[in-house]
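Ligand: uridine-5'-diphosphate-xylopyranose. Inputs:
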Amino acid sequence: MKITVAGTGYVGLVTGVALAHIGHNVTCVDIDEEKIKKMRKGISPIYEQDLERLMKEDKDRLNYTTDYKEAYKNAEVIIIGVGTPERADGSANLDYVFGVCNQIADSLEKDCIVVVKSTVPIGTNDEVEKYLRENVKKGITVDVASNPEFLAQGTAVRDTLHASRIVVGVESERAKEVMSEMYKPLTKEPYNVPFLITNRRSAEMIKYASNDFLALKISYINEIANLCERLGANIEDVTKGMGYDSRIGNKFLNAGIGYGGSCFPKDTKALHWLSVSEGVELKTVKACIEVNKSQKIRLYEKLRDDLKTLKNKNIAVLGLTFKPGTDDLREAPSIDNVELLLDAGAHIRAYDPISIESFKKKISYKLENDGTEGSITYFDNIDDAITAADAALIMTEWPEIKNYNISKYKKLMKVPRVYDGRNCYKLEDTKDIIYKSIGR
Ligand code: UDX
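Predicted complex:
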């Protein structure tokens, strides 16, 4: 099938590469010329396991271009995979989605199925179809299908090829046929992915409801963890005991310093916003957002309570990304904590295996404009980051951090004081240091 994908971020590029891998001819469109040049050389613009390997393996079925007219005009299927960032009021910004629609309307020369893979508020697919039908050349038929994406960063390629499910929302037989044809290889051996057809609004809702449920699960367990700390229970034993109940399950119950990333924070706010605007506020989602906001700064609060003042204290911050296996810093708890530490006049010694350069850019506004008394120095190894530090805060459970020899905290730090936001170590291994974690 001749498929064009608009946008080469996590969703667009991974989808394009996966579809090429199962035999389709895919053209990936992006406005960024530099990015396109890189991808033509087989270099992935994002850090994602297996992606570059497949970009090389399936290069004969993959094209990259900034020439959207050429890419859209004869495509059988066009997949929109551009961002839907959060607006200041929490609602989803659809400018990029409709920007692409504009280009599609401008370019299309034959009938086409347009697939919305970006996470969009319920009802958007209807608007996209209406917009396209009103604006394409006369005589061309466009049907729109909703096809939400469930991939997680760090495992995006595997999550796409071996997806938990493929959900397709359609309002026409033709869209149903084309989408079933496109995904046929993934529904068979060796992938056997379950394939669910719904109406478009249900498909849009499945995405938000799934992400918000997972976010709720995390906020819930984080609140239980905070209570465990007060009452002398151990959250790990508690979740283990809960997980035996198959109705609860044992996944996504890791207590920590909250969720970050490009999806949960944005999707909880967007669905909450939508529910309020419809007059049926989702109070559980509202609570989930509030809990996560305070959970993200739990380590800072524990440290401040213990040290009283952080002025001129040397604080190691271990891990900067919102989770391991990705270079993404969006909504990472490290940012909230580093901002507070800088305001308190601390000298930060930051370590991350891959994201130091992007973190520097992200935090530069604070150092340059806010006149903070604190400072940040960056290190490419944990040993140097913790040397002579007054405390270390673990923000991300990178394997390098999880497997770090605990005795070194005692050897290298001024005071071996470790605050672990991801429960990386077994409690019994931390007897020789001052160690605080979440819910234990
Ligand atoms: C998520 C969903 O998993 C994915 O299905 C959806 O398509 C996009 O959003 P992602 O944001 O890449 O994917 O990461 P995920 O692994 O889900 O983690 C999100 C955040 O939750 C991370 O900050 C992680 O540290 C946190 N988390 C996750 C917990 O705090 N506890 C857990 O048990 C699981």
